[in-house]
Design brief:
alpha/beta; Peroxisomal Thiolase, Chain A, domain 1; 5-stranded mixed β-sheet; about 30% helix; binds acetyl coenzyme *A
Length: about 325
């Protein structure tokens, strides 16, 4: 029997503090109407000053472990997708390992910005298929508020903080179960479209997000649709066979345009951007966990994850949950 990676549980965490569009209008020259119309966002969660990315990742991981009904010591791999680590090193993944009490294992971070969770899922899936890992925690965790320029209304209104996690388990199963395929892409020629204006080896600080909004929008719709089509082609299925599309939650207009390109009705698209904002690598696992726990996504259904982020990076993953 072939080995495949099954999502056996999920978990998430959102910071207590909620910042509404009206709260933002007190900081920068903007309005609830402008933000909602252009992005679909109404509010986002913002981490406390002393709350780090690993604090949020640990909470999401604990939820996922409890949801799976396993012990932390049953995990043998931890992959954290993040753009906003606590420190330059060590990784957030080893902080999660220590806090959870996971014995010696494989633990590292991946950096693919908003596509990070899909990258992490693909890496974990390949470790499992190579029979090197049995149970992997894949986490997306971000404190985007720490890299925002809070005086730049073109970016600070779009992002939020949070963490989401899934546990992948190796199972011998018939074809068509678990993660069916993953598709990863990057093109560094487009790195100036979305970046931070700093870094440890250049300015010595993390810098703030700078974005060419319109260019990102255009590429996001086209490239995410390409990544979705790659998944459909690889599995010889059509979009109407997908039960749920769980897209990166950047912007409602991007999500709607991508769904339209695929002729997928919005009833089958998971949308949480209205109250999460763009949480980068955390957005897909946060949306997935919310949809699973609310009973929308059910066991046995076919779910497609897709994302695009700085780099540019983009990708998709097709999963029978
Ligand atoms: N409030 C009020 N006015 C604003 C704001 C704001 N927060 N931000 C910009 N404006 C103004 C601009 O200054 C401009 O004014 P002007 O016409 O007087 O010059 C006007 O609104 C229009 O600005 P545009 O940038 O052209 O607005 P656009 O319709 O393109 O919407 C947006 C901007 C929402 C950023 C859009 O381009 C977009 O969604 N891009 C995708 C970006 C994205 O989602 N990035 C997330 C990271 S990448 C990812 O995760 C996929």
């Amino acid at each position: 029997m072939p080995i495949s990676s099954h999502i056996i549980s999920s978990g998430s965490y959102l910071p207590e503090k909620i910042m509404t569009n009206n709260d933002l209008a007190e900081i920068v020259d903007t309005s609830d109407e402008w933000i909602f119309k252009r992005s679909g966002i109404k509010s986002r969660h913002i981490a406390a000053d002393k709350q780090s990315t690993s604090d949020m990742a640990i909470c999401a991981a604990r939820n996922a472990i409890a949801d799976a009904g396993i012990n932390a010591s049953d995990v043998d791999g931890i992959i954290v997708a993040t753009t906003t680590p606590d420190q330059t090193f060590p990784s957030v993944a080893v902080s999660v390992q220590a806090a959870l009490g996971v014995p010696t294992c494989i633990a590292f971070d991946v950096q693919a910005v908003c596509t990070g969770f899909v990258y992490g899922l693909a890496v974990a899936d390949n470790f499992i298929k190579a029979r090197q890992l049995k149970r992997v925690l894949v986490i997306g965790a971000e404190k985007m508020s720490s890299i925002l320029d809070w005086s730049d209304r073109t970016t600070c209104v779009l992002f939020g903080d949070g963490a989401g996690a899934v546990i992948l388990e190796a199972r011998e199963s018939a074809k068509g179960q678990g993660i069916l395929s993953t598709h990863l892409y990057a093109d560094g020629n487009m790195r100036d479209m979305l970046y931070t204006n700093g870094g440890v080896s250049t300015t010595g600080t993390s810098g703030h997000i700078v974005m060419q909004g319109r260019e990102v929008f255009k590429h996001a719709v086209n490239l995410m649709a390409e990544a979705v089509n790659a998944a459909l082609d690889a599995n010889n299925i059509t979009a109407d066979e997908i039960d749920w599309l769980v897209p990166h939650q950047a912007n409602l207009r991007i999500i709607e345009s991508t769904a339209k390109k695929l002729s997928m009705p919005m009833e089958r698209v998971i949308v949480t951007v209205q109250h999460h904002g763009n949480t980068s690598a955390a957005s897909i696992p946060l949306a997935f966990d919310e949809a699973r726990k609310s009973g929308k996504i059910k066991d046995g259904e076919l779910v497609l994850f897709e994302a695009l982020g700085g780099g540019l990076t983009w990708g998709s993953a097709l999963v029978r949950v």
